[in-house]
């Protein structure tokens, strides 16, 4: 009996120790060990000179991107599902077009509704069957329809962990988001060979926290940090209007938020 009590006590201590180590990794150390190289110096914003179609623009980072485009006076249309709440888009003076990204015909019809100059996609999920996820299929439909309709420019928000950045993602992300990362990788690869002028941006940990204004783009796939959705939206809009960002794959990096702890304690 004493042996089993000692064994249980020992196991309990080990579990607590492992939990403490994991918490330390998540809140203090993840993302803080690498200083990125090849930082991108943003140039002045150049409008795409035509309407912009946004997929994933009715909430989260996509909605922030739409707001910032409207602040610059851009004409924006957002592709939405029939059940989407479009009240905030209406208040921003944004048009909408109904299109389920998983339906290639609907996506094609969305692009055919106007002579769009550019498209931005933030489509993605963290759960669900592959066939019901837009991470690859939905974005592939967007890329193909953009190409078919003569769109010149695309900005695509993916995730750190896709492509050659896999080892930069924290270990828990690599485990629990492995399927998402694989689908994003396929979508990135599809975009690169599409013939569209593209900018791929990979954020790390995203949060609905205040902007710092210190986030930058880097071509260093080893970089990782946490970042505000608002700062990510700024980077996406800057990239859209920056000819030097064409045909590049970037990591969105905020040097002031190398760890999760730092992001939520600013």
Main sheet strand line-up: 1-9-11-7-6-5-2-3-4
End-to-end C-alpha gap: 50 Å
Give a quick account of the main beta sheet: strands, pairing sense, barrel closure.
Answer: 9 strands, mixed
Question: Could you say which structural class the secondary elements and strand pairing correspond to?
Answer: alpha/beta
Mean of residue pLDDT values: 88
Report the radius of gyration as a whole number of Å: 20 Å
Our count of helices gives 9
Strand proportion? 15-25%
Task: Name the shape in a single word.
Answer: globular
Helix content: 25-40%
Q: How many strands in all?
A: 11
Helix-strand pattern: HEEHEHEHEHEHHEEEEHEH
Return residue spans where pLDDT drops below 50 for at least 5 consecutive residues: none
Give structural notes.
The protein is built from 9 helices and 11 strands. It has 266 residues and is an alpha/beta fold. Strand 2, helix 2 and strand 3 form a beta-alpha-beta unit. Helix 2 crosses helix 8, helix 4 packs parallel to helix 5 and helix 5 runs parallel beside helix 7. The N and C termini lie far apart (50 Å). The mean pLDDT is 88.
């Amino acid at each position: 009996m004493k042996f089993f009590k000692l064994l249980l006590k020992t196991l309990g201590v080990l579990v607590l120790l492992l939990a403490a180590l994991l918490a330390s990794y998540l809140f203090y150390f993840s993302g803080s060990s690498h200083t990125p190289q090849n930082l991108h110096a943003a140039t002045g914003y150049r409008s795409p000179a035509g309407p912009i179609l946004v997929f994933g623009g009715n909430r989260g980072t996509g909605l922030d991107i739409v707001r910032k485009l409207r602040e610059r006076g851009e004409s924006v249309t957002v592709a939405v599902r029939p059940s989407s709440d479009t009240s905030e888009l209406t208040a921003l003076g944004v048009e909408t077009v109904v299109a389920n990204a998983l339906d290639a015909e609907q996506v094609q019809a969305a692009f055919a509704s106007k002579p769009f100059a550019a498209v931005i996609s933030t489509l993605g999920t963290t759960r669900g069957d592959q066939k019901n996820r837009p991470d690859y299929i939905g974005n592939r439909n967007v890329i193909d329809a953009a190409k078919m309709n003569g769109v010149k420019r695309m900005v695509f928000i993916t995730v750190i962990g896709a492509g050659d950045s896999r080892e930069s993602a924290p270990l828990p992300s690599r485990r629990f988001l492995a399927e998402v990362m694989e689908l994003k990788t396929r979508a990135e690869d599809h975009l690169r060979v599409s013939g569209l002028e593209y900018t791929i941006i990979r954020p790390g940990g995203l949060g609905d926290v205040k902007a710092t204004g210190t986030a930058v783009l880097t071509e260093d796939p080893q970089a990782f940090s946490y970042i505000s959705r608002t700062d990510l939206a700024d980077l996406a809009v800057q990239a859209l209007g920056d000819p030097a960002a064409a045909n590049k794959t970037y990591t969105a990096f905020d040097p002031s938020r190398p760890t999760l702890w730092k992001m939520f304690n600013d």
